[in-house]
Amino acid sequence: MNKMNKMNIQAAKSATEFVRIVSRDREGRASYLEVPGHKGARYNVKLKRNGLLTSHCYIDRGGMGNADCPSRHICYHTLAAVAAAAEDVGMTVVWCNSLDDAKRLSNLGGQWFSVTNQFGNRAYGVVR
Q1: Distance between CA atoms of 69 and 128, rounded to whole angstroms?
Q2: 54, β-bridge pairs
Q3: What integer pLDDT is reported at residue 1 of this predicted model?
Q4: Neighbours of 124 (CB within 10 A)
Q5: Cα distance from N-terminal residue to C-terminal residue, the chain
Q6: DSSP 44-108
Q7: Is 87 exposed, middle or buried (0-12, 13-18, 19+ CB in 10 A)?
Q8: Close Cβ partners of 106 (under 8 Å, ≥ 6 residues apart)
Q9: What pairs with residue 44 in β-bridges?
Q10: CA 44 – CA 34 distance, rounded (Å)
Q11: 49 with 29: CB under 8 angstroms?
Q12: Phi, psi at residue 6, to the nearest 5°?
């Protein structure tokens, strides 16, 4: 079980307001988002929903194409993209340290969920 890094959550909160939705899926939900990174870098996050929420984060290397995000854990780019996608439909995400924490928090209102990245790592949250 991966513990959320407080720095990642704070960085994601800071980046969320600058996320740009590039494209949407057939149901109108944000599916491809551009997220700013450190030192002017840009990251592209693809979100897929097929009963599970999965993400794939790429660093945009300009004319050299894309490469996987160098972070193997759930990066703040993914956290920011998921939060921005939720905000786009009028919802808010609260990130949690574990599945158990997410389930407990959801008892106060909202729905717990997880997001899995391209490396199989997972983060948990509650959306309301």
Answers
A1: 28
A2: 48, 116
A3: 42
A4: 24
A5: 23
A6: EEEEEESSSEEEEEEEE-GGG-EEE-S--S--HHHHHHHHHHHHHTT--EEEESSHHHHHHHHTT
A7: middle
A8: 112, 126
A9: 34, 58
A10: 5
A11: yes
A12: -55, -35
Report, in angstroms and rounded to the nearest whole number, the Rg of the chain calculated over CA atoms: 14
Instruction: Enter the tokens of residue 100.
Output: 């158990």
> Which tokens sit at 50?
């097929």
Which amino acid belongs to residue 7? M
Contact 82, 89 (CB under 8 A): no
Q: Could you read off the pLDDT of 25-55 as tens digits, one per residue?
A: 999 999 999 999 988 899 999 999 988 999 9
The model's pTM = 0.92
Encode pLDDT of 94-121 as tens digits.
999 999 999 999 999 999 999 999 999 9
The single-letter code of the amino acid at 37 is G
The C-alpha atoms of residue 8 and residue 80 are separated, in whole angstroms, by 9
